[in-house]
């Protein structure tokens, strides 16, 4: 029952979070900082009350290690959201972030000296190819959309390249953070709730560096069209309502993934998250009518086939199907 609930939380929470984020970004493409701050503040407050018991519970993992982890986590979160201000479409943003397996494998080979099977390398080639196809097609769309002025088109394309560079850096930084977390958990044990709290609580002072941008977007949000909140019947600016929905759904998504990691194997978690990304992508394309060519679909399909191959879903399904017959033969 807990597993079913966790999967429901992941799909409902994460898909709703993507929708609310796109509603925000469509109105104010540069609102990533205020969105990130609101998410961090909400999750930090929840953790401060329910996990740390108002600061009375001491952390199991030393704070100095969390400072390193938090620096990487804060950087990744801010850059991922801020990249949307550089002509990065939401579908490309989601596809690009699906390349985390590539970054994890590359850094795993370099830092941890890991070695992988031939199927793993093939899956990474497929994922890289799919992302490359989608990126090239998106680059062509940026060029076509700005054909009117050569200078304006060049400026727009350079901004798009900066956005791609930001997503690439965030991808590698996220993978490095994952390796750092892995070493910490091996040394001190898994403390996911604690890590979730400190990863969102400790970076809060860092948002002072972004306070001007956050304040400007607070003004813009307050000047947006009013909307009536269901049930309560109170009228609030619609952008604040979208932000509230985004923060709540982000929390639901994270909690769902946390419950899933405690109830299921890592393979199941990866499969659920991958399917969630695929559904979010399809919904974003169809509901918001984002430009998506046949080549985009080809690239997306290759990415997800490579992801499923990496997680060895096919062999797991075959083993599950063969399981009963193997047991019957042994019984005979």
Automatic annotation (TrEMBL):
Signal peptide: 1-20
GO MF, any single term: UDP-N-acetylglucosamine transmembrane transporter activity
Segments traversing the membrane: 36-54, 66-84, 90-112, 124-142, 154-175, 196-215, 227-245, 257-275, 295-313
InterPro entries: SCL35B1-4/HUT1 (IPR013657)
Listed GO CC annotations: endoplasmic reticulum membrane; Golgi membrane
Primary location group: membrane
Keywords on record: Membrane, Signal, Sugar transport, Transmembrane, Transmembrane helix, Transport
Entry membrane topology: Multi-pass membrane protein
Localization, UniProt: Endomembrane system
Pfam families listed in its UniProt record: UAA
Family: Belongs to the nucleotide-sugar transporter family. SLC35B subfamily.
Protein name: Solute carrier family 35 member B4
Species of provenance: Pleuronectes platessa (European plaice)
């Amino acid at each position: 029952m807990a597993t079913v609930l966790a999967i429901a939380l992941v799909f409902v929470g994460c898909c709703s979070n993507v929708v609310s984020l796109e509603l925000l970004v469509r109105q104010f493409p540069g609102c990533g900082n205020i969105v990130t701050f609101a998410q961090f503040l909400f999750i930090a407050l929840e953790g401060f009350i329910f996990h740390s018991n108002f600061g009375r519970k001491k952390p199991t993992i030393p704070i100095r290690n969390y400072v390193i982890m938090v620096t990487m986590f804060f950087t990744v979160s801010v850059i991922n959201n801020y990249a949307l201000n550089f002509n990065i479409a939401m579908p490309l943003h989601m596809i690009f972030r699906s390349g985390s397996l590539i970054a994890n494998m590359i850094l795993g080979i370099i830092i941890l000296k890991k070695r992988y099977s031939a199927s793993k390398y093939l899956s990474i080639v497929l994922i890289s190819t799919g992302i490359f196809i989608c990126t090239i097609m998106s680059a062509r769309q940026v060029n076509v959309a700005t054909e009117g002025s050569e200078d304006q088109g060049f400026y727009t394309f350079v901004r798009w390249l900066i956005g791609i560079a930001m997503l690439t850096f965030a991808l590698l930084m996220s993978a490095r953070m994952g390796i750092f977390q892995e070493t910490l958990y091996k040394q001190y044990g898994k403390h996911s709730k604690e890590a979730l709290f400190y990863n969102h609580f400790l970076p809060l002072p860092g948002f002072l560096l972004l306070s001007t941008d956050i304040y400007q977007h607070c003004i813009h949000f307050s000047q947006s069209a009013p909307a009536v909140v269901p049930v309560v019947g109170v009228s609030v600016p619609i952008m604040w309502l979208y932000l509230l929905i985004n923060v709540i759904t982000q929390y639901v998504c994270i909690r769902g993934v946390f419950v899933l990691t405690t109830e299921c194997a890592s393979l199941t978690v990866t499969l659920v998250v991958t399917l969630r990304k695929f559904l979010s992508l399809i919904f974003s394309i169809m509901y918001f009518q984002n430009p998506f060519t046949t080549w985009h679909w080809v690239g997306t399909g290759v990415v997800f086939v490579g992801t499923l191959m990496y997680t060895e879903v096919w062999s797991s399904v075959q083993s599950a199907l063969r399981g009963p017959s193997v047991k019957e033969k042994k019984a005979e």
